[in-house]
Sequence to fold (90 residues):
Amino acid sequence: MNTKPNIGILNSLIRITIGLTILSWSTAKLVKRPWRDSYLLMACIGAMKVGEGIVRYCPLTALYDMGQAMMQNRTESEQNEDQMIPYNPS
Fold:
């Protein structure tokens, strides 16, 4: 798998900032109410956003780009099929 950076510097700084904000908020809430699983889930999401910002790689962005490339190839192949002369055996 090719994991070269697919997000920019500004996007990564925003992800780190928002991720640390979510992580600090959720851990503060988790200290007060440790039985709530939603705060643990939010802490994991915040940590994931911090990691995406540090590595500058987002798997959802890569998946979206791959889907766009597949759609582009599909439309090109449909245009090529329209230009072909159909075979008539009679």
Notes: The longest helix spans residues 59-83. DSSP finds three helices and no strands in the chain.
